[in-house]
Amino acid sequence: MKHIIGIRAIISLILVIILLSIVPASIAESAFKSYEIFSLQIHLPEGAKIEYLRLYFYDSTYDNGIAWLTTYNGSGDLTDLVNVSTSGSSGYGQSLSDLFEHIVDNHLYTYVLNWRPYVFDSSMRLMGMRIAFRMPEGGGWSASYSYLKVAGCTFTPRNSTVEWRYPGAGGIYAASWSEYMPFINK
Amino acid sequence: MFKKRTWLVVVFACIFITIATVTVVANPFTQESSEYDTELLSQTIGKIDTIIGDDPDEEGYQGKIVTFSGSSDSEEGVEIETIPFDSIHDGETLPDEIGISIPVSNPEWTEFFYNFSAGSTLRPRSSQTRWAYASGGCSYVTKGFDLFTLPLVLPQGSRIDYLRLYYYDENASVDMMAWITTYDGMGGVSDLVNVSSVGNPGYSYNISDFVGHIVDNATNSYVLNFAAHGTGDSLRLCGLRVAYRLP
Question: Does any domain span residue A26?
Fold first, then answer.
């Protein structure tokens, strides 16, 4: 009797592994990796006024990735200033955030760009981000924008369990989450 | 026969529950915050620097200033021969060195400027070391012992005065350490200053001694280095802030 139960347990385990391997990699992986985030440290001029975040992407899926700008104070507190998502599924594109206003204070805050792809294959690529800001000028603000533009390939994951690849043209995409579930790493 | 069918139903029910649990726990379609648990936002945590002027790397400080005496506790851990290299003073000016501003000997200095970097943006110098994100822009080492680094880009001729280390420390037996290090690309290494965590439990920060180094981007590259001296989320790097002045 114990012998039969043991065989059944082994067969059950094999069935689970086979089923998880049959499930399309993108679905299984999105379930496991949906929270994974890529980030990049940025530095902006003291006193500048940030107004827009623009996201450059390649998106050929029905899911949307999201980018946002976060401030940290080094003592565990954070604020997400603005976010912007990919849109459509026709390949290269760009999205612009709503207008917001934040005055750069490098004494109190550090500024980090974050990116969550949701999809872990080359159908969702971060190509770049651009921050539009105005410099203080004569008691007001400069009439023209200054920009900080960064390439997607300069972002790295916040956790070392994530792998990533370079698809060309300065982009990046999340490739797999292989450290603990190697059999779904296709 | 009935028992066999029951067994199959149980197996496939387990498979379904496993997949459903993974999907629900991962919750891939809702979260847009940078944190796993947005309740952290409402927590009152840490030692937050709210008083301006009580520390030497802030305007208005009136207390004692301690000058860094040298690069003790080298981040390299080995002696490296420094190769002299300064093409500007070798009588030959290369195309990428024409018109470079030479630091003035005794300029008037501006008030403080800051280069503030989140701990979660530093990465290890070797892929043998692994890391994970904690919360609030903090990271910790999960495996390995390599240093974590981040380029430090400052204006030519500016003066580096202080390095501040923000951390979360729940490990009384280990102190974390951060450095500002220069490399000349020819094997020369110099640790300008270091600062360690101190025994305060939880979120805290510590400030280095006074540095007074004039930035020379023609000769040096500047790197922020960090060593946790241990693994696990009881030793978190939350930020590094460099206070500097412009001429």
Answer: no
Read out DSSP for B150-185?
EE----TT-EEEEEEEEEEE--TT---EEEEEEE-S
CATH of the domain at A161: 2.60.120
The pTM for the full model equals 0.74
Between chain A and chain B, the number of residue pairs with CB atoms below 8 A apart is 145
**Given pLDDT bands bounded at 50, 70 and 90, which one contains residue B223?**
very high
Please report the sign of the dihedral spanned by the C-alpha atoms of residue A148, residue A154, residue A157, residue A162.
positive
- B148 vs B130: CA distance, rounded Å: 10
Residue B44 has pLDDT above 50, yes or no: no
**Closest alpha carbon within chain A to B239:** A74
Q: How far is CA B85 from CA A158, B149, B181, B184, in A?
A: 37, 24, 17, 8
Residue listed under structure tokens 């701990």 = B119
Are B27 and A109 a contacting pair at CB < 8 A?
no
- Residues lower than pLDDT 50 in chain A: 26, 33, 179-180, 182-186
Average pLDDT over residues B224-243: 95
Domain edges within chain B = 39-70+107-245
| Residue-number span of the structural domain to which A96 is assigned | 31-185
**A151 inside domain:** yes
For residue A83, give the chain B residue with the closest CA: B32
Beta carbons of A70 and B137 less than 8 Å apart: yes
CA-based nearest distance A144→chain B, Å: 23
Please check the confidence at residue B71 and state whether its pLDDT lies above 80.
Answer: no
CATH top-level class of B39-70+107-245: mainly beta
Q: Chain A contact for B169, CB < 8 A?
A: no
Contact B119, B217 (CB under 8 A): no
Taking contacts as CB-CB distances below 8 angstroms, the residues of chain A near B28 are 30-31, 34-35, 118
Number of folded domains that form chain A? 1
Q: Does B70 or A92 have the greater pLDDT score?
A: A92
Which range in B41-50, B83-92, B167-176 is most confidently predicted, on average pLDDT?
B167-176
Residue A12 belongs to a domain:
no
- Contact predicate B165/B240, CB 8 Å: yes
* Least Cα separation, residue B69 to chain A (angstroms): 26
- Mean pLDDT score across all residues of chain B: 78
Predicted pLDDT of residue A153: 87
Query: What's the DSSP call for residue B64?
Result: -
